[in-house]
Amino acid sequence: MTDAELLRAAHEYENALRDNDLAALDTWFADGLATVRAEGGTALVGHGEISDYRARRGGAPVRHLRRVHVREPAPGHAVTVSETERVDGGSGLQTQVWERRGEGWRIIAAHVSGAPAAPVPTVAPGPDRATWRERGPDGGALVRGSGHGELAGVRVAVKDLVDLTGHRVGAGVPAHLERAVPATRTAPALRALLDAGADVTGIAQTDEFAFSLMGTNAHYGTPANVAAPGRTTGGSTSGPAAAVAVGAADLGIGTDTAGSLRVPGSFCGLYAWRPTHGAVDVEGVLPLAPSFDTVGLLAAEPAVLLRAGRILLGVPGTVERPRALLRSATLSGLAEPATAVAVDAALTALAVQTGLPLLDVVDLPGGEFGTEEVQAWTAAFRTVQAAEAWAAHGRFVEENPGAVSPAVEARFRTGAGTDPVDVDLARETLRRSASRLAALLAHGWLTLPSTAGPAPLLDASPAQWEAARASTLPLTSLASGAGVPVLGLPWGRVGELPVGLSVLAPAGADAGLLDLLTRVAPEGRRHRATEERPGQSAT
Amino acid sequence: MTDAELLRAAHEYENALRDNDLAALDTWFADGLATVRAEGGTALVGHGEISDYRARRGGAPVRHLRRVHVREPAPGHAVTVSETERVDGGSGLQTQVWERRGEGWRIIAAHVSGAPAAPVPTVAPGPDRATWRERGPDGGALVRGSGHGELAGVRVAVKDLVDLTGHRVGAGVPAHLERAVPATRTAPALRALLDAGADVTGIAQTDEFAFSLMGTNAHYGTPANVAAPGRTTGGSTSGPAAAVAVGAADLGIGTDTAGSLRVPGSFCGLYAWRPTHGAVDVEGVLPLAPSFDTVGLLAAEPAVLLRAGRILLGVPGTVERPRALLRSATLSGLAEPATAVAVDAALTALAVQTGLPLLDVVDLPGGEFGTEEVQAWTAAFRTVQAAEAWAAHGRFVEENPGAVSPAVEARFRTGAGTDPVDVDLARETLRRSASRLAALLAHGWLTLPSTAGPAPLLDASPAQWEAARASTLPLTSLASGAGVPVLGLPWGRVGELPVGLSVLAPAGADAGLLDLLTRVAPEGRRHRATEERPGQSAT
């Protein structure tokens, strides 16, 4: 719905600003004495004054758009309020009032302000066992990697589903841990990270058997979410998300079956990548529903996610680029209204930052998603996931009464007696939705809210947890069911609470999807919070 | 032309902000999730979030509007960029995007930022004799006042036209000073200030016989203008203006015949008051053109101007309030385009701050001023002023060849041979324009640029000086010819250069005119610049 030329103009304006292209900047500001540019405490009035100012200042600090709020009160008139992230960690705001003239969109008024980087809060660590199942001494490495390579110095939190030689897999369930034997081989995906120089800083918690999206764990407690205090991290990659958000790790390696990387990424304000199904080896990783299981990553710094993602992909093939970004009113409408608005601002920032056109699905062949279609793929996904989860862990659940919490047990048991015919029908439904999605993705990469809302409060009732999970599954299960890769960008804000924007690319386009990060993110983005690290502060 | 309801809405919004009236503030921001309020580095999205924020913050710092830039790109849509002055000396910016809905104007997007008070620059004093003809020892008092009363502690710079017991009057002309004898009585206007507690800190320079508007003086040099470095202070009250602008005095007492307070007020960013002709006693003050001569004031702090002005008026009668503010396209058009735009922003700030309606003269009975009308009153004023100036000082000029500079001498000589019939005709023209103005002022107080532009550069050519004077006289001579009072508000900015907004009230409405200051100015506004004051820093 947003005027395409307006987004294009905003993109070209950002390019001109980055390049300090004075002639172009002069062009984007409307001619005449009425044009106003306000910054800090004073306003410049008139095109000439503004131009003179720019010629004197010698360029603006590099900034990256994170949210662009576009309002178009009348045809040919628009206001954009852009929130930016600066390389120095500070944040910036830019309001522009645009008018469409004969020669195109022009800025008639602008207001710029900024804030320095917020002081990095030192966060009191929560109960350590809620985040970590096993940790290196004094916050140092539990297992050292090669120490050299692309990931040298990167501290990895490993979800407690992934084999690490000499360590057991706990899967968030104490009874499972008791019965586990130490792994004799590190999972290949994790091995690749260690070979590239990363260290394992600890084995971090997960929802029981990864079969939840909310990050609660009745046995170990719920990890603290420093990005949304008093709220859950989401899950099931809860421990790695908590560890990365607090700065105790740089990278989380975990699984995503139904959203288990995308959801904590959304709730904790982290970059998340779910690869194309099968693109990253899941050997040595405890399964949940093999048709959907993937091994992927979480990071606070986009550059870390990019480097680690490229390691997991191995030698990249072609780096695919999207023709456009797609937006679906139906999918946006699955989120809470404030979340939909917040994610839309993040999407607009992505469009302006990359210069990619923003198209509405309704205008493409095939048209908008229907509500029945969404319900169908969600139900089908649930059916197949539950059947496969029961196949993977049903016996353990049967043999160990009370080993998993009642809600998770109930979830497993929905898959116990599934008629194989129903499972086949569900797989057929998922194939259809995958075909439909693949056809759509030929027009551009599809964007949608990563979650239906921000992180729920820790004291939510069981019914509220279930509702939060149920409202998010329709959003996450589209990519899970189709096996396509997803990049989660942590740019949305509902108040101070993060919510993610998911970008879905065609199957196999992981390298291109990760490459988006090079176009939107500053190098050297700092952590938002720092946990005390006794082992490091002693040096 | 600006939508009256919009200005009213902006006024009521400011009132609500001042009173921290949360319900009213909630009303002014548009309902719904799309409303954005950005401040510092982040944006709040949605009416609810914005409302919650306001409820938490407990009020905003008191601010006063100085310039409001209104742009109305389409009917029912407007943007206001407001520059504000805070009581703590800091400055603020507020951009608001307005939409007219069924219920009235509402804010759909806002952006707020601020800057702390600029560090007070310590200005190297220029050649002392360019500003001061006589000064107290070590920057202290030259003559002490009563020391108690409304003006206790106020340091007054006295224009070198005003009698001070024991001191001579120099009138900017060394040959005049040589012939002068010490006054035996202090002029009543100055006496009133001293009685109210003020001290005379020095006798400050003037243009030769006050017969210029530019502040140049061939004998003593041109005082430095710290508000517009490298430019003139304007005149003829040049020394007091320079002294007040630099913080070496709190108050300037001077004369205004053709704009000699309003012009330096405009060029130096000072509040200026020219009283109703005859309202303040001119006894003991060297005349220039008695039909127009007034004694008035300059100050950096509006509160100082207000207190001192009330002293000069004596016991006030009724405090008249304007029904509206009037704007004339003809008079605005006499200023340079950038100055007209700047003064319009100051006028809009005045309208929003006071809540007074802003009416265009063209819409009132009598209609817009015509160009011939302006030319007529300017020419008539020049004729009468020159004739009276010659009557006052022609003999001195004749008897002291070379005592005044050629440009000033030429100006005097234009009055030498004036036919009394022409003078009478000119007086008749001025009476007509005074009647016309009086009729207009019944509808509201007339506003116009105080000068045609900001201060000229010090290295301007004689022709440029003459042009600057000639372009400003049509603006200043309207009030001079009609004898009505003028308040100069130093709020316009052309780049960093100040330009003043003049407000003309009906004859005798001085108390009401000064009372405007109570509605628009913070108490305790600090000086912009500080001259070294050895006498004070020693304590």
From TrEMBL, chains A, B:
Protein name: AtzH-like domain-containing protein
PANTHER family the UniProt entry points to: AMIDASE 1
Pfam family, one: AtzH-like
Source organism: Kineococcus gynurae
Domain Amidase residues, every copy: 146-300
Entry's transmembrane regions: none
